[in-house]
């Protein structure tokens, strides 16, 4: 078990750069607080509505080219493995119309929310974007990845499966 955890840690270390704490941030290993989320592509929800199934949260902004670059792979990941975990996007844009224009370009089908008050941004620790947070079915932060990634690459899919304890 220890060897598997070390292997998983090394896998994710290769995926992310060091991070600096944000005030109010829930660190890896911590449990996300209940938080209202304003719907951007659908209705509003509570973050806790996603408990019971692993969750991948992607924090993005319309002015972030790397955010757009990774959206296609997040969409493919969501389509292929959506029965095993949920994928949601959180825009930190000030203007919903800019965020919606970004999503028109990105062509994603998973739900997106907008964080006008920066409560989610601060809780997730999004001091840089894109940020992708892996959350287990109980709401515990498993891992945070800063920067754009190819989310449906075989290596990344394998690391996600290990993080969530799923067969992929």
TrEMBL record:
SUPFAM superfamilies: Thioredoxin-like (SSF52833)
Range of residues in the leader sequence: 1-21
Ribonucleoprotein as UniProt keyword: no
CDD domains: TlpA_like_family (cd02966)
Superkingdom classification of source: Bacteria
Keyword NADP: no
A Pfam family matched in the record: Redoxin
Domain Thioredoxin: 11-165
Keyword entries, A-Z: Cytochrome c-type biogenesis, Disulfide bond, Redox-active center, Signal
Compartments, as annotated in UniProt: Cell envelope
Major subcellular site: other
Name of the protein in its database record: Redoxin family protein
Species in which this protein is naturally found: Aromatoleum toluolicum
